[in-house]
Write a structure and sequence with these properties.
Blueprint: E1 18-24, H1 27-40, E2 45-51, E3 55-62, H2 64-77, E4 82-88, H3 93-99, E5 110-116, H4 119-132, E6 136-142, E7 150-156, H5 158-171, E8 179-184, H6 189-195, H7 200-210
Antiparallel strand pairs: 1-3, 1-4, 2-3, 5-7, 5-8, 6-7
Length: about 210
């Protein structure tokens, strides 16, 4: 997914009060909608581009009111091409940072994973999970290299990561998507090392944007 930055990026430490993401099954629809969303209201951030398998994602961030206005404009452009969508007017800091590539490596009692067939659903589930349970988001992976799927990894005490999975899945239970989850009480040290490898999504896109 090629990232198109407008004015700001989170590299300067900024956090956006609200974010929204729309997932399209058509590249043409996604580009058209992204253009309309930027023209509708002043936004601090636009990240847009293709992901497997032939989907187009538009991610926006900024103050709550303009994000909401642009989000609804985007949904109205080609509604028949919208695969999934999410808007978080008060996004949790952990989710915000994980979306933009922050990854945490730590030795915790247990790990849990929520895997979804769409990106928007995973972001929504992760936000609900971390707001409702005492867990740490280790990583959120978004689409690239995953056939369009997404997953979030949570760490914490066994009972807390179990609660996080339940809360996250309940948040997206009305969506017509595929969901897989797991809770691992004591992950093997070597397996934990593999899990702690860098996120492909942002590693790939950072290289593209830097011309490497």
């Amino acid at each position: 997914m090629r990232l198109l930055n407008n004015d700001k990026s989170t590299s300067d430490g900024n956090r956006y009060p609200a974010i929204a993401l729309i997932e399209f099954d058509s590249i043409a629809a996604g580009i058209t909608a992204g253009d309309a969303m930027m023209k509708k209201a002043p936004l601090a951030l636009l990240k847009a581009g293709t992901v497997q398998p032939g989907k187009y994602l538009v991610l926006i961030g900024g103050e709550v009111a303009p994000v909401e206005e642009s989000y609804h404009e985007g949904l109205n452009i080609r509604p028949e091409s919208v695969v999934d969508q999410v808007i978080l007017p008060e996004i949790h800091n952990q989710v915000h940072d994980a979306i933009f590539g922050k990854k945490i490596t730590a030795q915790l009692d247990a790990l849990a994973i929520i895997e979804t067939s769409t990106v928007a659903a995973n972001i929504d589930a992760a936000d609900a999970a971390v707001k409702g349970a005492e867990v740490t988001i280790m990583e959120i992976r978004l689409a690239d290299g995953l056939g369009g799927k997404s997953f979030s990894i949570f760490g914490g005490k066994v009972e807390d990561v179990q609660a996080a999975v339940e809360i996250g899945v309940n948040r997206i239970q009305d969506k017509d998507i595929t969901v897989h989850t797991t809770v691992i009480p004591r992950i093997d040290e070597q397996m934990a090392s593999e899990v702690n490898q860098a996120s492909h999504f942002f590693e790939i896109n950072d290289n593209r944007n830097s011309g490497e």
